[in-house]
Design a protein that fits this description.
It comes from Chloropicon primus. One of its GO terms (cellular component) is Golgi apparatus. By secondary structure, this protein is an alpha/beta fold. 32% of the residues lie in helices and 21% in strands. Strand 4, helix 4 and strand 5 form a beta-alpha-beta unit. The longest helix has 14 residues. The radius of gyration is 17 Å and the shape is globular. 32% of the residues are buried. The structure holds guanosine-5'-diphosphate and magnesium ion (MG). The site of guanosine-5'-diphosphate (GDP) has 20 residues, from helix 2.
């Protein structure tokens, strides 16, 4: 009887765990986003971007939100490292796809990579957050920046969200620290309500 009640109590109070896959081409700021999440959720005491090295394997962070437990997987984005991404797709409850809004010359590459990921059967129906990173550089007069509207229309033109009814494009700066936590909150809300994978 005790074990039955204990099992019931455990089930009632156990925290759901969600896995978020951070994807995007190299240098867009994926690991910086992860470091910012660690600071936002008090896993790391301070934000030290200068210590971030190019990702070769996988960075993992576990985060406790009042609503759930989150596991973030940040994978290396260089062309040669992307071949392992699909090994993680089946386990992912959502995708956080990072784009660098300060390098227009790499937008086409980001779109191609996003298309390849999102069309994979193992990711169909998974909530997708596209994070337009490096917004701190957009209003500095840097010539190669592009707007979130441009990003949104490129995504729509290519029909990238056709098999992802739950999607959102948002922006911010992992470096300066705005927009990331709001994006994570959106992911939590949608993962909780998504019936396909959860
Ligand atoms: N200005 C600016 N630079 C950023 C931002 N996020 C990342 N970076 C820089 O972009 C470079 C690549 O970042 P990194 O996180 O290693 O990218 P990754 O290869 O996608 O993991 C580093 O020099 C970061 O400091 C941002 O929001 N604003
Ligand atoms: Mg990295």
């Amino acid at each position: 009887m005790f074990s039955l009640l204990y099992g019931f109590w455990q089930k009632m109070f156990e925290r759901v765990e969600y896995r978020v896959l951070i994807l995007g081409v190299d240098q867009v700021g994926k690991t910086t986003v992860l470091e910012r999440i660690k600071v936002d959720y008090k896993i790391a005491a301070s934000f030290r971007p200068s210590t971030i090295l190019p990702t070769v394997g996988l960075n993992i962070a576990r985060v406790e939100d009042p609503a759930c437990r989150l596991v973030f997987w940040d994978l290396g984005g260089q062309a040669g490292l992307r071949s392992i991404w699909d090994k993680y797709y089946r386990e992912a409850d959502s995708v956080l796809f990072v784009v660098d809004c300060s390098e227009e010359d790499r937008l086409a590459e980001s779109m191609e990579v996003m298309e390849e990921c999102l069309s994979n059967n193992d990711l169909v129906g998974v909530p997708v957050l596209v994070f337009a990173n490096k917004q701190d550089l957009v209003n500095t007069g840097k010539a190669t920046t592009f707007s979130m509207e441009t990003l949104g229309s490129r995504i729509m033109e290519r029909g990238l969200f056709e098999s992802h009814s739950i999607h959102h494009v948002t922006g911010g700066s992992a470096y300066e620290g705005f927009g990331v936590k709001e994006g994570v909150q959106w992911l939590i809300k949608t993962m909780k309500t998504n019936q396909i994978k959860v």
